[in-house]
Amino acid sequence: MQTSEARSAVDAALSTAVALGLEAKDAVVLHASNRTMLRLLPCDVVARVAPMALKESAEFEVEVARRLAEAGSPVAALEPRIEPRVYLRDGLAINFWTYYEPVSPQAVTAAEYAEALERLHAGMRGLRGFASPHFTDRVAEALQLVDSPAETPDLADADRELLDTTLRTLSRSIAQRGTRDQLLHGEPHPGNLLRTKDGLLFIDFETCCRGPVEFDIAHGPEDAGEHYPGADQGMLRDCRVLILAMVAAWRWDRNDQFPGGRQMGIEFVHQVRAALANGLHVAPGT
């Protein structure tokens, strides 16, 4: 994110928080990509700031998180001192969340992850009335990048073909297995999981989609599926490679702002190729 964009996000978050009665004098940038995450001080509130183009996804995230919290699911809470909604200021969409002080640098184990994710999925099954995309819609977005040299100009031809074939074939194979779909987090990787005094809590719900639970499990520790009751291990292996290919496509986007994204794109393409070489056979795409 450009310095001017970060400054605009900070200014908008601080002024909005003050107008809402929160004591906000300073901000620490926790993360910056397509959205900026800030810790506002001294009120200790997390502000997520997004471009106006992402307003609808921010509203979706707030509503999903609010209802999951009410159901007792393991999710980060919205800031309780103000109305739980998206606030608009200076062409930006802002929402406010509880700040959780880190309690331990200890890595999340596969068993812990699986237990928290299973609880999240149980809560998500109880949600009604959400028009969320299917996981294949998210794959289609990645394919659009791969199939557009103008959007991914630095992606080598051989790597482009590899990602195209992998995305098409695996998404079709997973969708055709007839597994029951449900609402999913969409990207429940360890970076979207907080270890707090209240236990493990998931954050970032703008990526919610519908699909098999294995699509979510595949974002977690390598052996998480062994601790998730009823997980289809074959589908889980396919989902892991599919997600690698999807993330690789996003990191090659010429507009990608993820820190260190290009090097990650290179590494993920290598991992996809290695996974296929180690026994996961992907037929030519159509």
Radius of gyration: 19 Å
How far apart lie the N and C ends? Answer: 36 Å
> What is the residue-averaged pLDDT?
93
- Approximately what portion of the residues adopt beta-strand conformation? 15-25%
> What strand line-up does the widest sheet have?
1-2-3-5-4
SSE succession: HEEEHEEHHHEEEEHHH
Low-confidence segments: 281-286
**Class from helix and strand fractions:** alpha+beta
Sheet having the most strands: 5 strands, antiparallel
| Counted beta strands | 9
Number of helices: 8
| Net shape | globular
Proportion of residues in helical segments = 40-55%
Descriptive tags:
single chain; 286 residues; alpha+beta; 8 helices; disordered C terminus
